[in-house]
């Protein structure tokens, strides 16, 4: 039931926020081809150590509804190799996150997203369990131009679905606060 509640809230945002930004708005992109409204980018993480290896890839595909409002989705893949035991424990996580981002003032934006993460966690040295986790996240961030059609962004989101790990339930997050950074390329960012 909670998942349905999050999906309905996200659908409401996607459906009704663009209505607030009609064609007479100076932020309108009326007449701009759809191909020029597409934004790509994402994040990449990599670390290697004596105890653990970690690789994370999160491509993003977005569409500029107008100069202030963007909708899109990101896909996440994470690989973790815990080398503190022999044989090592390899975990594979993947997910999808549709989102909506609205610029409120210059380079400051608000973001809401729904995330489904299918994650794996170790039960013991030989066995893992795979579970799905639904998250409703919201927060804000800053986007900084690094060229005509490219920008660096950083966003802090609060996970309203966060539950701390306990003996019966493992959480894929250590905290309700999720911080992300990456690069967007394309679209009418500025």
**How does the major sheet shape up?**
8 strands, antiparallel, barrel
Compute the separation of the termini in Å.
Answer: 39 Å
Reported CATH architecture:
Beta Barrel
The overall number of domains is 1
Total helical segments? 1
- CATH topology call: Porin
* Rg over CA atoms: 19 Å
Q: Mind explaining what this structure looks like?
A:
The chain contains one helix and eight strands, in the order αββββββββ. With 190 residues, the chain is mostly beta strands. The protein has a single domain (2-28, 38-185), classed as Porin (Beta Barrel), CATH 2.40.160.20. An eight-stranded antiparallel beta barrel has the order 1-2-3-4-5-6-7-8. Strand 1 (38-48) and strand 2 (52-64) form a beta hairpin. The termini are far apart. The model has no long low-confidence stretch (mean pLDDT 82).
SSE map:
Elements: H1 2-16, E1 38-48, E2 52-64, E3 69-82, E4 89-105, E5 108-122, E6 128-147, E7 150-159, E8 177-185
Antiparallel strand pairs: 1-2, 1-8, 2-3, 3-4, 4-5, 5-6, 6-7, 7-8
Summarize, please.
With 190 residues, the protein is mainly beta.
Give short descriptive properties of this protein.
eight-stranded antiparallel β-barrel, Porin, 190 residues, mainly beta
């Amino acid at each position: 039931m909670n998942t349905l509640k999050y999906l309905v809230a996200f659908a409401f945002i996607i459906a009704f926020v663009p209505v607030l930004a009609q064609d007479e708005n100076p932020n309108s992109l009326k007449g701009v081809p759809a191909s020029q409204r597409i934004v790509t980018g994402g994040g990449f993480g990599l670390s290697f150590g004596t105890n653990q290896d970690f690789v994370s890839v999160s491509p993003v595909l977005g569409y500029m509804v107008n100069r202030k409002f963007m909708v899109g989705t990101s896909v996440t893949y994470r690989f973790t190799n815990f080398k503190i035991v022999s044989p090592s424990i390899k975990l594979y996580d993947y997910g999808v996150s549709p989102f909506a981002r609205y610029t409120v003032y210059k380079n400051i934006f608000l973001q809401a997203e729904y995330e489904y993460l299918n994650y794996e966690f170790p039960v013991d040295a030989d066995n893992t369990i795979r579970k799905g986790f639904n998250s409703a996240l919201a927060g804000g961030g800053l986007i900084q131009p690094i060229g005509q059609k490219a920008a660096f962004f950083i966003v802090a989101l609060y996970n309203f679905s966060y539950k701390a790990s306990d003996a019966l339930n493992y959480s894929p997050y250590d905290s309700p606060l999720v911080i992300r950074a990456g690069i967007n390329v394309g679209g009418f960012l500025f």
